[in-house]
Fold this protein.
Amino acid sequence: MNKLEELSKEISYALRHAPWEYELEIDQEGWVPVEQLLDALHKAEKWKNIGEADLKEMIEKSEKKRHELKDGRIRAFYGHSIPMKILKEEKMPPDILYHGTARRFLESISENGLLPQSRQYVHLSQDIETAKKVGKRHDNKPCILIIDAKKAWNEGIKFYLGNEKVWLADTIPSRYIKMM
């Protein structure tokens, strides 16, 4: 399989099946900012040098026409196994949520809590396995953080249901975070 085919498969997986593993925020029509996708891909050594021109070439040369690029955004045409819309409806979260992160971010998290960084929201996982997968995109031995979501919710922190595996929050102050 050539590099463009491999890239197409990776992007298809990210956009169609597991956007939470890549911390992507998909809008109601399935679009993701190209910059956000590239940022996620660059975390893997294999895709460190991929740019928007590579995405265009991948789309142009693909026989299956799986993706569309427009106005700085990209989406998969079909084959989604996820709900297409990340709802930003405020909802009471489960008592405990998880966040997988790189060890190098722990000091900053203990000082500042979890911040959305370049994203609109902090992404939290409903289960440890998903948190590990997300964390492994940043570190081969990620730390799993336990979020006391019930206490945070009761004290006014807003949570939003992302999809069946992901919850979103504006920020999570460090007092609600414990290391696993």
About this structure: The helical segments are 3-17, 34-41, 52-61, 106-112, 128-136, 149-154. Strands lie at 32-33, 67-70, 73-76, 96-101, 122-125, 143-148, 159-161, 166-169, 177-179.
